[in-house]
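Memo to structure team: turn this sequence into structure tokens by end of day. - J.P.
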Amino acid sequence: MAENVKTTLYPMAGEVVEQFENLLRTLRWIDSAKPTPTDTYEWLRKSYDLSNYFARDVYTVILISSGLVTVRDGRCRLTREARTVLDATSPIALLEIFERQFAGVAAVLEVLRNGKSISADSLKEAWFETVKDRFPRMKIWSARTLGNQCRHRLNWLRAMGFIDGVKWKYSLSEAGLQLILAHPPEAIAIQEHEVQKQEKELCRLALGKFETFDTSSERKETLRTAFVRDRAFRKVVTTQYEHRCAVCDFRLGTPSNVYESEAAHIVPKSKCGSDDPRNGICLCGIHHWAFDEGVISVNSKDLTVIAATYLNRLSGDESAESVLGFHGKRIRFVADDEYAPSVEALGWHNENVFLA
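Reply from structure team:
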């Protein structure tokens, strides 16, 4: 029976390309046939020579629990996530979906980041220590459940080619290494309670004395903390401006309340600028770039936009003229005065970043 499993999309040992291609084939069939759940079990059983047990397991775990397939009016249909996988035709898209549905998949990659092989038991212990505070419900899992859940995640990652397993020891594959270099696993599936905790800390900072620079030895102790804090900083700052650009007032969002608004650090992080919300300003993508490059700044004396004088020499350049059009304009007010941009931080930007 184990040999049968190796030839199907169920993430066990086997060829990665074959595993993922089988998943794509299955999704395409479901999209075309709109089968009942029973039809799907039977198709999986016959197509991949599975027992009834494994056919149902593939259906339940890989298709339904992962959110790739839903059942409406007794028929299986693809979700938006499944169509994303089909369009991307890449295991990376599948990893992102698995991480949203099955907490802690990406954390396995964090544990294996050092490149050393690690036994299954040691990996399980290190993995649990990494994820237990992010996903509190895991703390009530039995030892058996913990072992099963960790094993499932290891199998998914092997099936997608991100980790290698030899004689019950695991390590990052070359594909896994390239993945974490391009997409740090610490940034995947950040939980709302983690962001809320950092939001409270940033709001506490806004009530105290403003510190332009953060030179604390405890600053961003882990990469995960850095990503969480950045997300909290963005949420606190953009909310104060109602997700509108402080310069041009641009505001555009999706039905799911995702906005084209960015939180710019006035004194940049690269210069140890603090995460105090008063060291932030909400900007659209274009004006964020212009602010960071010193093409524009905000006058610390009257909070008006100032544009670099070199723009005046670009006669007839529509982009330059667009930026110059905001020169002298008062930036948007924040909802709560306590979160207004720091005069001290703006003064630093005027002197050290602005091209004048």
